[in-house]
Amino acid sequence: MTDFTLDERLxxxxxxxxxxxxxxxxxxxxxRFAWLILVPRREAIVEVSDLSxxxxxxxxxxxxxxxxALKAELGGAKLNLATLGNQVPQLHFHxxxxxxxxxxxxxxxxxxxTPEPWxxxxxxxxxxxxxxxxxxxxxx
Length: 140
Fold this sequence. Notes:
Elements: H1 8-13, E1 14-19, E2 23-28, E3 34-40, H2 53-74, E4 78-82, E5 93-98, H3 120-134
Antiparallel strand pairs: 1-2, 2-3, 3-5, 4-5
């Protein structure tokens, strides 16, 4: 896997959970939402189209499979998948399990209220959960 440099804002706003074959999986540091960030471990990637076709397919595969597994486990109402990059240009893929009782439902999660940081022990629990849910994706 090619080394890559994680954008400083992504590093500040998220917690590392694990590395999949293409993406680093990170947890957004806002306990109000089940919000993962997938960052392709490639240098200088801004758009999905900067990835090869096989990497594009892999990105979609990792995001949708992990998202659907997390949605099922948490009993989510909707899975939101998005790439924006307006504030952080490094390509990153938002995977957000939405619940009808979450702090922003039914609107978008961006810019709503004040983020509530995850306690360290909860981040560890997320690592364990995502490691288990991602096991089928680790084959490559």
